[in-house]
Amino acid sequence: MISYNEIQSILKQKTPFIFVDKVIDHDKGKRIVSLKNVTGSEMFSALHFPDNPVYPGIFIIESIAQTTAILCSLSIEENKNSEIQFLALGGLQRFNFYKPVRPGDTLRIEVEAVKLLQEMAIVKAVVKVDDTVVAEGQMTFGAVKDE
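Above: the chain sequence. Below: its structure as tokens.
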């Protein structure tokens, strides 16, 4: 398991823009599973339909992106000494949202590497609340180099 404090040291994003609370499983270079607890005190709750709060889809995508960044960080040793600053989202393929996510839900973000290289990543992601798939698809990331 990887704690929130460890996640903070891995990701370039800082609070309140960290959308992964902990990593519960990980197989180096192959897959990772993280959790995100959606609370009613987050900034979206007051803005994204105040009488019927829905967790924004872009935050779900960001949770997947951050989970992928953690997988890459734990998997690709060369990243520690490279000029790569971070992975940037390059595209979504066959990505679908099925059900709304609301305060009180816990996202289970399952990311499987299709291709994982130092300068790019292609992953398949499935996001669940309990046993229900709320979003899934494939994502491509490209490395942004420090200049």
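Helices lie at 4-10, 43-47, 57-75.
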